[in-house]
């Protein structure tokens, strides 16, 4: 079976750092690439990411700013925000060997093009093998070696299995799948639902309202997934139900925290408190894609309207509660 020993991680942020730690603990030779000079210097000198304070890099991890260094790996984890995946893959493409797996670890859908992460890889690096890693996995938990399970998907089952094997560190337990679309769609959609759940929490609407929002958010994820080719078992799995329930339940999720701040009345511009909330970028795209296939997604529609400044939180909540009654599905 194919094996991937040299792993490069692109993106020295919270998740990139956590995955670099995981790959090193799994016994892999790890190169961590960071594009920002200041963060790269901090990673090299202090052996710590500014995005994950208190986590010291494993001694074996090599930090670099040279993309060609990273490109020599057997497989690369792409751990940059979803909306910058395209420029990163475009720069990387001419440097990698054919059939190198590029594993998108971002959770989002590209503005404008409506491309999923692996579609961007296929388009910008056609000689590479696109793959996706997603699931209920907070960087701080994973970096500290707390038990975590995710799903790694690639079209070729043997590649997915080999990537899972490469990242298996004991406490980090990757399942493998060939449902690439299902895995990447769940991770993107859950971020929007986490914002909605955070708004409910921030408005102090109670546990019952949070349970209703989470449940109906999952219904929307499944509807959207069916329309865009996801397998039902994937949506019921780690990258769908698992990640959604986790991120709809705790302020450890930046998207949930962003929603909480909105629920407390903070402005859209300040509610993220300088942290990455991918759902902010995905919500309008999700709405456009749902409309394109006539998928009914009232929660996503409400979140997108709030984020566009077209609807205030209380009106959005009232609108959801006063919709015509219907049979549950
Ligand atoms: N944090 C988590 O718990 C998890 C995050 N994810 C996903 O991982 C992805 C990354 O998130 P996360 O690491 O948390 O985000 P962070 O904000 O912690 O880090 C983002 C990283 O991307 C880098 N970056 C930003 N813009 C560019 C660019 N144009 N070119 C190259 N690098 C760039 C940043 O570098 P710079 O220092 O220059 O800004 C930084 O190193 C997201 O899609 C997120 O949904 C998935 C699972 C868990
Ligand atoms: O995707 C994640 C956990 O699975 C991280 O969630 P946030 O981006 O909401 O912090």
Automatic annotation (TrEMBL):
Pathway listed: Membrane lipid metabolism; glycerophospholipid metabolism
InterPro entries assigned to the protein according to its UniProt record, in alphabetical order: 6-PGluconate_DH-like_C_sf, 6PGD_dom2, G3P_DH_NAD-dep, G3P_DH_NAD-dep_C, G3P_DH_NAD-dep_N, NAD(P)-bd_dom_sf
Gene Ontology MF terms: glycerol-3-phosphate dehydrogenase [NAD(P)+] activity
Signal peptide boundaries: none
Top-level enzyme category: oxidoreductase
Record: active site: 190 (proton acceptor)
Keyword terms of this UniProt record: Cytoplasm, Lipid biosynthesis, Lipid metabolism, NAD, NADP, Nucleotide-binding, Oxidoreductase, Phospholipid biosynthesis, Phospholipid metabolism
Reactions catalysed according to its record: sn-glycerol 3-phosphate + NADP(+) = dihydroxyacetone phosphate + NADPH + H(+); sn-glycerol 3-phosphate + NAD(+) = dihydroxyacetone phosphate + NADH + H(+)
Pfam family, one: NAD_Gly3P_dh_N
Classification via SUPFAM superfamilies: 6-phosphogluconate dehydrogenase C-terminal domain-like (SSF48179), NAD(P)-binding Rossmann-fold domains (SSF51735)
HAMAP family recorded: NAD_Glyc3P_dehydrog
Role played: Catalyzes the reduction of the glycolytic intermediate dihydroxyacetone phosphate (DHAP) to sn-glycerol 3-phosphate (G3P), the key precursor for phospholipid synthesis.
Name recorded for this polypeptide: Glycerol-3-phosphate dehydrogenase [NAD(P)+]
Species whose genome carries this gene: Rhodopseudomonas telluris
